[in-house]
Amino acid sequence: MSGTAEIYDAVLRPGKLELLRGWIAHQPWFDGEPELLEQVTAYRFVDPDGEVGMESFLVSDGARTFHVPVTYRGAELPGAQDALVGTLEHSVLGRRWVYDAPADPVYVAEVLRVISHRDTAADHLAVADGTVSPSPVNVRGGGDGASGDSEAAAAPEVIRLISEENDAESDRPLIGSPGTLSGTWQSADGTHSAVFVVVA
User: How many domains are there within the chain?
Assistant: First the structure.
C-alpha cells in the first residue's frame, strides 16, 4: 500500500473542480463543454519525502470519463510553466501550485514504483479526527511490462479518456496487465474498471 495521504478539512479558493474545468477546457484531448464536468471520484499517492501532494481525478461530462492526475506543490516547479494547471489558496497549507502530474518528476517516480511493485493507492487520513479510510478507487499496479524495461528507462503514459473496453483483440491495454496502472470504482450506475496509466 502506498502509504497514507493526509486530508485536511480546508477551504480552497478556487475549488479544485473549478480549477480543473478551466484547465481541461484548453487541453487537446478534450472537445466538450467544461462546465458539464463533475467529479466522479479521485485517488491519491504519497510523496516519500512528504513535500508534494498527488491526486488523480476522474471527472465526467455525463457521457465520457476523463482521468486527470495533478500534483500540489508549496512552490513553483522550475521549468514546468507549461504544465501549470493554476494556483489555489488552501486555508491550512497556504498557496499551492497545481501541475499536470505527468510533468512532475515526483509523480512519475511514484506511479512507476506503484506499477512495478504491484502496489495500490494511498489510504486517506482525515487530519481533523484521525480516522483512516481506504482509497475510493481500488488501484493496482500490474507489475513490470513484458518488454522488461527498467523503471529508469520507462515512461508513463497517462490515459486521459477512460475506456472500459478490455478486449485482447483491441489495441487497448488489458486491465491489470503488466506495465499498467488500473483501477476499479463505484458510481451511481454501478462498478467500473479501466486502465489509467501505461508504461511505454
Answer: 1
Strand, coil or helix: what is 38?
strand
Say what the alpha-carbon torsion angle 134, 136, 138, 144 is, to the nearest 10 degrees: -90
C-alpha count within 13 angstroms, C-beta hemisphere, residue 101 = 32
Q: What is the pLDDT of residues 20-31, one digit of tens each?
A: 999 999 999 999
Quote the CA–CA distance of 93 and 75 in Å, as a whole number: 11
Give the chain's radius of gyration (CA, Å).
16
Instruction: For CA atoms 63, 64, 69, 74, give the dihedral sign.
Output: negative
Q: 3-state SS of 94-163?
A: EEEEEEEHHHCHHHHHHHHHHHHCCCCCCEEEECCCCCEECCCCEEEECCCCCCCCCCCCCCEEECCECC
The rounded Cα 20 to chain-centroid distance in angstroms is 12
pTM over 0.90: yes
Residue 111, domain extent: 4-199
Instruction: Tell me what the mean pLDDT of segment 152-175 comes to.
Output: 79
**How sure is the predictor about 149, in pLDDT bands with cuts at 50, 70 and 90?**
very low
What is the C-alpha to C-alpha distance for residues 115 and 194, in angstroms, rounded to an integer?
14
